[in-house]
């Protein structure tokens, strides 16, 4: 749907005594998007949480901490009920799990210390010296360091504090035994090594050999790991036994906390409360029926307004005809008087449009377009009062993407990846992106058949289009088909003109709420300028100064032969004294420019955007050629290729390079023999290049074609009519997944 689902503002007024029942009923409906009271009404304050909210919040934190410790997932439980005495059961689980987790943490810390000891003794094992021989001396200084052996030896030799020394090496580990001079400091070796890049290793306090010391540590490590595994098993057993219970309690407490804190959004007095919120208009009767069944006549329920679509108005709403609703006659009052009357009406128990929040947005798109909502939300949620561009993304994004990649092989892989994301990933955003990938892959496959390509090989054309003259279409990489390369740029420009026209037309309809004149001057001016300038560009006026491909692309002998050679016969009159013929397209542009200057003088400096923005779409043709070129290079390296006498390229898939000279003689040329034809080793290396090369092209298709398509949608298209900044519809309530309604 272009418009979000219609919303109604409702008010529920009643005594404080029935407030808990009203909250529970509304929560169970999971229907009302509550409005926040800002404290501005005389005599009304924000409500306080219902008794027990703090305790419920604490228990909820406990449950979620236990779920995190046990690694409980939402798939670990089936819906069920919560038995009486669940609080005692929860406390028992908390005590047991915390005890096991603390013990596990202690063991993990001990394991870390053992690993550090093993790491510290590793250098000594390289030396092959018993550890007790490296410490305990009074007359000599001993140090074990790791670094450049020559640099260490040179630094110790140059020290004035060392009379003589001996080194023992093992790899980069050096044990230095030095006899200090009489006036030496406490650590002469350390003093000598200042400025040398070394790592000092402390000698473990043990009389064992390094090997025996490590063996004992490994035994201790294994024992600690066994004990930790036993704790993990106990925790896993608790998880298996209590996961469903914890998930049910979490859901129950979540609902309890939500209900207990709901009064914070209400306007309350000592005896009464007023709650307001937004609901889909079609569900108003359902809300009334549910509250009537729960509390009878103890509350007053009113539909205050039904929101209209007007993105430019602070409040553009259709008031209902229910008694007590603010009338349209109040529009003549000053803002201060209206606010005073509103507060008085509320205080007196009357009904009015009270909490001045905007309606939330419910994106209401058909199933196939639903995944594209995530791309819209990546920019911003649509305002309730503006068009939802999701349907246009659905119609154009896959088209742009498929046009740029255009390969049946890549398209099938994109669809497979998207299908996996949709069916196997339990995440709404990723699943939606998977849906987008499926549609993008589908159009990539369709365009692949149009181009006759599968993994960059032109093998589909002869099979699918053997009896069709114009298909498959060439991408334009070959010298003989260079006119196609320029033709795709022209096609990209035409796509941009159409796309931007849609954006301006949507803006025109958005502005109709302010009158036809406002829409005509604000949006119609851009439509006139866009189409006027581009019809002139494709006209024959000034043909000599324009590039030839504008007229050759669609000419009878061009790449897309529809017989178009430019718009002609559009002249109106010659401007006196200038000898310049004013044509209808230029007049359209000038009229649009004047209308824009009259309506929005500041925007007139951006008038040339109607040319610049369209040129942005040529990036589609550029990406098409770039991706085709990358696939061509990958296939060229593996298969090799030759150019026939007509200038067309062919891969050597089924022939040896010698075939070219035999079949064509001197009129053909081998471009590259191909690794496939260069021996076994080259063949194996070529297969690696072939696979990895196409994987790279496949990935770059997302980062180039995908991002470029998104950029055209966000920057060029959305800017014409879309503002965003809406609030997502989040009804007060919780969907039950683990607890039964009781």
From TrEMBL:
One of its GO terms (molecular function) is proton-transporting ATPase activity, rotational mechanism. One of its GO terms (cellular component) is vacuolar proton-transporting V-type ATPase complex. InterPro entries: V-ATPase_116kDa_su (IPR002490). Pfam families: V_ATPase_I. The keyword Heme does not apply. It is a multi-pass membrane protein. GO terms for biological process: vacuolar acidification. Keywords: Coiled coil, Ion transport, Membrane, Transmembrane, Transmembrane helix, Transport. It is found in: Membrane. The chain crosses the membrane at residues 391-417, 437-465, 486-507, 519-537, 582-599, 620-642, 681-702. Residues 306-368 are annotated as: Disordered. Gene3D superfamilies: 1.20.1460.20, 3.30.70.2170, 3.30.70.2750. Residues 329-340 have a biased composition (Acidic residues). Residues 306-320 have a biased composition (Basic and acidic residues). It comes from the Archaea. Residues 83-117, 214-244 form a coiled coil. PANTHER family: V-TYPE PROTON ATPASE SUBUNIT A, VACUOLAR PROTON ATPASES. Component of the A-type ATP synthase that produces ATP from ADP in the presence of a proton gradient across the membrane. Belongs to the V-ATPase 116 kDa subunit family. This is A-type ATP synthase subunit I. It comes from Natrinema hispanicum.
């Amino acid at each position: 749907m272009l418009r979000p689902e219609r919303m109604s503002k409702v008010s529920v007024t009643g005594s404080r005594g029935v407030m808990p029942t009203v909250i529970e009923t509304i929560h169970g409906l999971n229907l009302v998007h509550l409005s926040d009271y800002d404290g501005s009404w005389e005599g009304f304050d924000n409500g306080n949480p219902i008794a027990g909210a703090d305790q419920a919040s604490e228990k909820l934190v406990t449950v979620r901490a236990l779920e995190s410790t046990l690694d409980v997932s939402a798939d670990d439980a089936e819906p069920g009920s919560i038995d009486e005495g669940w609080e005692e059961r929860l406390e028992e689980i908390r005590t047991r799990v915390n005890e096991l987790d603390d013990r596990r943490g202690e063991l993990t810390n001990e394991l870390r210390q053992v690993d550090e000891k093993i790491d510290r003794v590793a250098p000594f094992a390289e030396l092959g010296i018993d550890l007790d021989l490296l410490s305990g001396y009074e007359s000599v200084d001993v140090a074990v360091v790791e670094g450049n052996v020559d640099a260490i030896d040179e630094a110790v030799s140059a020290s004035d504090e060392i009379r003589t020394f001996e080194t023992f090496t093992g790899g980069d580990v050096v044990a230095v035994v030095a006899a200090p001079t009489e006036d030496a400091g406490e650590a002469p070796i350390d003093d000598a090594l200042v400025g040398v890049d070394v790592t000092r290793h402390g000698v473990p306090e043990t009389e064992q050999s390094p090997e025996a010391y490590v063996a004992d540590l490994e035994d201790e490590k294994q024992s600690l790991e066994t004990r930790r595994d036993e704790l993990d098993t106990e925790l896993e057993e608790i998880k298996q036994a209590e996961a469903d219970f914890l998930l049910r309690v979490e859901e129950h407490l979540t609902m309890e906390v939500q209900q207990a804190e709901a009064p914070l959004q209400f306007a309350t007095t000592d005896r009464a409360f007023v709650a307001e919120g937004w609901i889909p208009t079609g569900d108003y009767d359902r809300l009334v029926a549910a509250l009537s069944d729960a509390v009878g006549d103890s509350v007053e329920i009113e539909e205050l307004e039904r929101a209209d679509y007007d993105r430019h108005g602070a409040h553009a709403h259709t008031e209902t005809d229910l008694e007590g609703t603010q009338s349209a006659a109040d529009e003549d009052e000053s803002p201060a008087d209206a606010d005073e009357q509103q507060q008085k009406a509320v205080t007196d128990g009357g009904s009015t449009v009270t909490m001045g929040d905007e309606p939330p947005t419910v994106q209401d798109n058909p199933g196939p377009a639903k995944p594209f909502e995530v791309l819209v939300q990546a920019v911003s949620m649509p305002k309730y009062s503006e068009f939802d561009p999701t349907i246009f993304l659905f119609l154009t994004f896959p088209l742009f993407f498929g046009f740029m990649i255009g390969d049946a092989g890549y398209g099938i892989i994109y669809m497979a990846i998207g299908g996996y994301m949709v069916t196997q990933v339990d995440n709404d955003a990723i699943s939606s992106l998977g849906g987008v990938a499926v549609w993008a892959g589908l159009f990539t496959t369709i365009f692949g058949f149009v181009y006759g390509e599968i993994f960059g090989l032109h093998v589909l054309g002869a099979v699918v289009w053997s009896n069709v003259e114009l298909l498959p279409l060439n991408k334009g990489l070959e010298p003989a088909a260079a006119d196609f390369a320029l033709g795709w740029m022209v096609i990209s420009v035409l796509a941009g003109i159409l796309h931007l026209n849609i954006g301006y037309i949507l803006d025109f309809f958005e502005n109709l709420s302010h009158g036809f004149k406002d829409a005509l001057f604000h949006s119609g001016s851009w439509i006139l300028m866009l189409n006027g300038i581009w019809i002139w560009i494709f006209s024959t006026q000034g043909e000599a100064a324009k590039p030839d491909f504008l007229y050759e692309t669609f000419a009878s002998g061009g790449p897309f032969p529809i017989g178009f050679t430019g718009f002609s016969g559009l002249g109106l009159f010659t401007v006196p004294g200038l000898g310049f013929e004013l044509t209808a397209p230029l007049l359209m542009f000038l009229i649009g420019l004047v209308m824009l200057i009259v309506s929005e003088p500041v925007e007139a400096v951006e008038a040339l955007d109607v040319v610049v923005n369209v040129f942005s779409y040529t990036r589609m043709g550029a990406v098409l050629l770039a991706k085709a070129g990358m696939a061509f290079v990958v296939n060229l390296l593996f298969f090799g290729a030759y150019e026939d006498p007509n200038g067309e390229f062919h891969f050597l898939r089924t022939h040896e390079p010698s075939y070219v000279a035999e079949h064509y003689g001197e009129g053909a040329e081998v471009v590259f023999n191909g690794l496939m034809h260069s021996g076994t080793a080259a063949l194996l290396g070529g297969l690696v290049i072939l696979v990895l090369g196409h994987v790279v092209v496949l990935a770059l298709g997302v980062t180039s074609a995908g991002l470029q398509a998104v950029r055209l949608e966000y920057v060029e298209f959305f800017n014409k009519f879309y503002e965003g900044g809406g609030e997502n519809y989040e009804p007060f309530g919780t969907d039950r997944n683990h607890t039964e309604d009781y």
